[in-house]
Specification:
Elements: H1 7-25, H2 28-41, E1 52-54, H3 60-65, E2 83-85, H4 90-103, E3 106-110, E4 127-131, E5 138-141, E6 146-150, H5 155-165, E7 169-170, H6 181-186, H7 194-197, E8 204-210, E9 216-217, H8 219-222, H9 224-229, E10 240-247, E11 249-250, E12 255-263, H10 268-278, E13 286-297, E14 300-311, H11 315-325, E15 336-339, H12 341-348, E16 370-378, H13 384-397, E17 401-406, E18 429-437, H14 442-458, H15 487-498, H16 502-512, H17 527-535, H18 542-562
Parallel strand pairs: 2-4, 3-4
Antiparallel strand pairs: 1-2, 5-6, 6-10, 7-11, 8-9, 8-10, 12-14, 12-15, 13-14, 13-17, 16-18, 17-18
Helix pairs in contact: 1-18, 2-4, 13-14
Length: 566
């Protein structure tokens, strides 16, 4: 007779059984139940089964992978969604929220897939993906310079459609054309016009969102508190953003761009030192991003800086401006290129001269790689000695780089409480930490992340403190995550991203989503969930427990088979 299994030896079987039970929950019965619910709840005559993908669907992998923008989250061990929903109408979104909640699965919302930590399409709990890529309409009203843009549209599509209508209007947002509008704007959104016009959210005048009850709300219906929260607080904590109504900004018919590079041997240290005082204070029309990278040139390890700039004006204005403000840079007319605003969008996206703006409509132009990003804010200039010490550390690490993005200008004029994004006046520049790698596997991942974490640690004395602030759209799970959906866990990362605005975000979350249906590893927690967790420590959150209850019989069968009872 086979001896009974001890408790320790049962643990692996229990884990296997737990995973299998949720695979069973993704079977045809769950799929059919979900599709039937969608048909009942949506106001569309479309074939609902055509927009819902389960593991058994031949195109499931294609749909899942087409908007994975970080190769770290496209491995065999990456948790996969039970079902992917690709809505075609607003009623599909509303129905998906209701049905996911009823069936008991967490819902992850993806607009462009550029979340650096993959939280829009990965979860360690059973989950569905609501993929918004079909909802990408852009309606422009040049009479009042406003645009309704759906959250599944990309920034490239938005810029292209604006260009079709006007050569003297644009929108202040990011330089990567494949980024999704929904995530970019709801996380605040910034780009190379940040000093002239501020953030993307500063030009949002209305929005449409699906709440936890499946209601479709505009600004008037949702109220000013929720409207405030989704303009920089991350929409996925509060509902599903359907669309934003944005205001366009004026741009000249011709703008100027330039890129200059220097190494330590070319006085890069002094250029960086001076950049810290000039870039945030010079003419608001000028944005000078600076990349700092360790490189090897002629077998000599050194630091290379690259200054990429957009000036909202002509070359005859920017050259004398910097001759006065920043003579150490040595900018001359030959370094500069005049072009239209839409051509500058192509230049910033690294497309070659003469590239047609239609490339901005190409959603496949993004090269997926393994990557890790982090962020910081600098309030006081780093000394020359500090920079020289930093260069030594970066040369030792060899791989991680830094990107400095200057603030000042319009950012100094808007109060930190105007939107959830608080990093306004008093911040000289924002830092992005960056590392990319090619090798697959746990060891390569661990090594690369360790390198960028070490660089982040070296910067501690140079950046903001209490809290050490960070930018939500450069999401970094190293700051902290929530496992029990508690207020205290959320406060750790919440105060880094939102400073004093975190408390108001919690109040909004508590009012609009008390059951915490819309959640992820760094979502805004409701205050009520804290009390629920303390009372039910170690329990499964309510919506997940529904799926558990449905799967419990399967688990028991599997366990009995595993220990030889049946």
């Amino acid at each position: 007779m086979t001896p009974p299994l001890s408790t320790p030896s049962l643990l692996p079987l229990l884990l296997v059984a737990f995973n299998i039970c949720f695979s069973l929950a993704a079977s045809n019965s769950i799929y059919e139940s979900f599709v039937q619910c969608l048909k009942t709840r949506s106001n569309s005559s479309d074939n609902i089964s055509d927009i819902v993908y389960s593991h058994s669907n031949a195109t499931y992998e294609t749909v899942l992978e087409q908007y994975i923008r970080n190769a770290r989250f496209n491995t065999s061990s990456t948790p996969k969604p039970v079902i992917i929903i690709t809505p075609l109408t607003e009623s599909h979104v509303s129905a998906a929220v209701i049905c996911s909640n009823n069936i008991g699965f967490q819902l992850r919302i993806r607009s462009g897939g550029h979340d650096f930590e993959g939280v829009s399409y990965v979860s360690d709990q059973p989950f569905f993906i609501l993929d918004m890529f079909n909802l990408r309409s852009i309606s422009i009203n040049m009479a009042d310079q406003s645009v309704w843009v759906q959250s599944g549209a990309t920034l490239g599509e938005l810029y292209y459609r604006i260009w079709e209508k006007s050569r003297v209007y644009g929108f202040p947002a990011g330089v990567c054309p494949t980024v999704g509008v929904g995530g970019h704007i709801s996380g605040a959104g910034y780009g190379n016009m940040v000093r002239k016009y501020g953030l993307s959210v500063d030009y949002v005048v209305d929005a449409k969102i699906v709440d936890v009850n499946g209601n479709i709300l505009d600004r008037k219906a949702m109220g000013e508190d929720l409207f405030w929260a989704i303009r920089g607080g991350g929409g996925a904590s509060f509902g599903v953003i359907l669309a934003f109504n944005i205001k366009l900004v004026e741009v000249p018919e011709m703008v100027t761009v330039f890129k200059l590079e220097r190494t330590l041997e070319q006085n890069a240290t002094y250029v960086v030192y001076k950049w810290q005082s000039v870039a945030p204070t010079t003419d608001d029309n000028l944005f000078m991003r600076m990349l700092v990278q360790p490189v090897t040139l002629n077998k000599q390890k050194t630091i290379k800086i690259s200054i990429m700039a957009l000036y909202l004006g002509d070359v005859n204005s920017v050259v004398p401006l910097l001759a006065e403000d920043f003579p150490e840079l040595g900018l001359v007319t030959e370094d500069c290129f005049e072009m239209s605003w839409i051509e500058s969008a192509l230049w910033w996206a690294s497309f070659g001269k003469g590239t047609s703006p239609t490339v901005l409509l190409d959603r496949e132009s993004y090269h997926v790689k393994f990557m890790k990003r982090k962020s910081d804010y600098v309030k006081t200039p780093i000394s020359k000695d500090g920079l020289q010490w930093l260069w030594k550390k970066m040369i030792e690490l060899e791989e991680p780089g830094l990107v400095f993005n200057p603030y000042g200008g319009k950012m100094n004029e808007i109060k930190e409480t105007e939107t959830p994004f608080p990093h306004r006046a008093g911040n000289l520049f924002k830092i992005q930490y960056s590392i990319n790698w090619k090798d697959m596997g746990i060891e390569a991942d661990k090594r690369s992340r360790n390198l960028v974490n070490r660089l982040h640690s070296y910067m501690t004395s140079f950046v903001s403190k209490n809290p050490r602030s960070a930018y939500l759209n450069y999401r970094d799970l190293d700051i902290g995550i929530t496992k029990n959906w508690s207020y205290q866990e959320g406060k750790v990362y919440g105060e880094s991203y939102f400073n004093g605005n975190f408390e108001r975000l919690v109040d909004v979350k508590t009012a609009v989503d008390p059951p915490n249906f819309f959640r992820n590893e760094q979502s805004i927690p409701p205050r009520t969930i804290k009390a629920w967790n303390e009372k039910n420590e170690g329990s499964i959150p309510p919506s997940t427990s529904k799926a558990w209850n449905k799967s419990k019989p399967y688990v028991m069968i599997i366990l009995f088979m595993a220990i030889g009872i049946i």
